[in-house]
Fold this protein.
Amino acid sequence: MKLRTGIALFGLIASMSTVAAEKMDCVATDTTEIEARFTAWNAALQTGDAQQVAALYAEDAVLLPTVSNQVRLTNDQRVDYFEHFLESKPVGEINQRTIRLGCNTAIDSGIYTFTFSDNTKIQARYTFTYDRVGNQWLISSHHSSAMPEKQS
């Protein structure tokens, strides 16, 4: 009896997984489209509008920002971070990147440099994870950390 119950339960779980997999359509993308997501994010920075930048993040996105020790888990927390970050008028530039594509997800990792209005610069490692939400790509996680060693 226990064996039959176990087999039936396994069959039910397997069929549920198959149904879930069948309902998920993978949206085709390419590196050019994912590269454009950074361009859009950087353009949003140029507006100086923290709300516009935060709108590029999924509702439950995680932001581990470059110049703050606080993890940002809510839209209000992300807006707060960008309100302060945007005061210095940052302009980002990708120095090196690797993009990996998956089913309705993409990861863009590498090194970028921010130049601020006073001409100071900060180079940082970054990872943007994008998820396809509805008909758009949104940032689901963003990790950025200043380079630990001085560049020569």
